[in-house]
Design goal:
three-stranded antiparallel sheet; single chain; 313 residues; Alpha-Beta Plaits
Length: 313
Amino acid sequence: MREITRSNDPVFLSYLQAELAADGIEALVLDAFASSVLEPMNVTAQQRVMVGDDDYWRAWAVVEEAEERVTEDAILGGRVTLLQPKTGFRAAIDPILLAAVVPARPKDQVLDCGTGTGAAALALAARVADVTVTGIDVQPNLIALAGRAAHKNGMENRVDFLTVDIGAPEKTMQARMFDHVMSNPPFLDAAHGQLPKDPARALASVESTADLKTWVRFMADRLRDGGTLSLIHRHDRVAEIIGLLGDAFGNIRQLDLQPVDDGRPVKRSIVQATKGAPLGEVTAGRIVIHDADGGFTPEADAVLRNAEALPIS
């Protein structure tokens, strides 16, 4: 068993045990006898809360929320609630824009690689009825928060989250196939990326166990013929991504995310391609995200707040 927290607050301990039980997690409180013996002596004794190894990360997420180290953040105009650490990794608008370009239909199966706290996976499930989404990430703590968020949003039957290292995936994941694959991977290569001090931010922003080539190959191998691969990345790496797709993909589309329509350079782009489609010229378009006053443009607002699809062609 593993310790998830310790406390001398009986009210908190009772609340935590109830929350864990509600999630089907059996917890054992140790040192309760010592605490009761020492209480007459006015000596504070911490009680340890223990859970089974297999339940550790799910229990960790419950504790993080109970101890108010995570926030509940609404996206898509309140249609989806995310659970995110107060410090460290936090999703921005990139995964929401990514999910909006995926042409999924009801009953489709979608894989979200590098899901983090599940923003793209949950946003897609909110937009498309009856779609099923699997989100994977190398960070078990973020996967635990994403799974808890799926339950809060009533999506646990359609959205699941798994801890997977794309650089060394298990055979069970290698055997699974999907109708669409999307990803918001680390933007910086290990040779040039400066690691943030926060470990979660570092893994989310700088390539570690899998470089971009490995990442794209993994996505391509998980995709059925006729399915789409959608990837949001730095604009200056678009040509590299298109090159990595090779001749297995066609109908390649590029959507540039223009911060403001004032001539400043584009920093982010979405690339989408269809597996097995005929090769041809890359078609390009753009969407302007902010107006001159700093608010969202009507086109961006329709995606980010009204949960509308974002055509990429």
